[in-house]
Design brief:
Blueprint (H helix, E strand, L loop, with lengths): L1 E7 L8 E9 L4 E5 L4 H4 L1 H11 L8 E7 L11 H11 L10 E3 L2 E2 L5 E2 L4 H10 L3 E5 L3 H4 L19 E4 L2 H8 L6 E2 L21 H13 L3 E4 L6 H8 L8 H13 L14 E2 L7 H5 E2 L4 E2 L1 H4 L4 E4 L7 H5 L2 H6 L1 E5 L4 E5 L3 E6 L19 H9 L4 H4 L3 E4 L5 H5 L10 H19 L8 H7 L4 H14 L3 H17 L7 H9 L2 H5 L3
Parallel strand pairs: 3-4, 5-8, 8-9, 11-18, 11-19, 12-15, 15-18
Antiparallel strand pairs: 1-2, 2-4, 6-7, 9-10, 13-14, 16-17
Helix pairs in contact: 2-3, 7-17, 19-21, 20-21
Amino acid sequence: MLASVVTRASVGIDAPKVVVEVHASNGLPGFSVVGLPEASVRESKDRVRSALLSCGFQLPPKRITVNLAPADLPKSGGRYDLAIALGILVATEQLRVSLDDYEFLGELSLNGEIREVPGVLPSVIRAQEAASCLVIPAGNLKEASLAIKPAEVFDEPAAEAGKVLVANHLLQLCRFLMDQDTLIEAKTQLFDQPFYDVDLSDVRGQAQAKRVLELSASGGHSLLMVGPPGSGKSMLAQRLVTLLPELNREQAMELATIHSVAGKRIDLENGIRRQIVSPHHTASSAALVGGGSVPKPGAISLAHHGVLFLDELPEFSRNVLEALREPLETRRVEISRVSQQASYPANFLLVAAMNPTPSGYFPDDPHGRCKDSPDQIARYQRKVSGPLLDRIDLHLEIPPVDFDSLQTNVSSTHEETSEQIRERVTRLHDMQRRRQGCLNSELTSVQIKEHIEIDQQGSQLLKNAIEKMGISARSYHRILRIARTLADMEGNDDVKVPHLAEAIGYRSFDRNGIN
């Protein structure tokens, strides 16, 4: 007898449908799985056999063939166990039910318990689009509830259409399918307002750095901070994410889906908030960009709609830094392997920090702590010069914090909080999207001509800067984008000379190097 059960694969942030076809026939007893299964899927026959026997079912002496269609799609993981087990029960007529309106996900333990699997959110989204009832492990309940749509969105829904049900055990699921038991239905999870345990008001002094952080957040501009140890570079970077607007539901779902596919737990108690991802400088290209035999998202995708913070930038491998160049422009990453290709979004805000010299101090340090030779400094700085530096919008020197700022009583200061700045940033994001459909950092050359008009004095200023600093065409456009954001921050419709002058000042490393 032939039985068909629908499940979902995991390919990037998508979940294509997979039909599990089970055929039980006479002949030499055997159990084979075909359809491009990887090792973890081929091993499912042992898990399924033990689970069925532990639940009191039989595995008849028949030749059982399991086909996972489409055959050209690689299959991996234990997510197909539950569908295979149900297919065998229907094919051997031990379970006389119709599974046409259902989809199933779950890994089976040897005693029949249904274990959670990674990447459930894309499957929930696609099952809802297909108006199918999806059965998932109980361990995935909270995660799946993020994507639940209300029942009224389905036209003439069937009894179970669009529902997401959770099951703990194979026997419980079988009783439900025979109308002898009930399953818990996942309900829509509302997003709580995110809470951050750090605030920009914690930072003493560094008024210029705080202004640049607001500029970076307002226009989505990447940032490189250069300063000695203890000047507050990491502290500032960690608080940049608190200045960004709250995620809307679509953005929150994108971020949650990436974390689901990566097997990361989603902290619902603190809301779905923008993330700051800080990979160690020993991270490989695969850890940063994504990879593996089954392509998984890397740090840049986990930082989608958030901040990617690269501390000690020159200590990263050159190959790792070069891998950032394309995602910075396209805001996506394509991971290709021999048998599979995956695409992940990577719309992150890059923030990097480094010391000015190998010793950590500026060459003109008043205390004479920099003992590096010019050759040593040049070699150190060359690790981040060139194409990557050209793609970073804002270059900022962070001086040491002065004594008076450190001694200031927190209660006597009038430091702005992250929430106050976030309100301004949110208004600017809304204004930019209404005006041009994107943030200023994403303006194309055509949009720059449309939304940025420069008078004769401003054009002369830019010409002088290009001739003296050797600015590239890419840096020229970045200066215009930064100037547009500066004008927006001041409420000006036109980009004026002071905005251009300040924007050029944030490209100082193009001219002087990092010193």
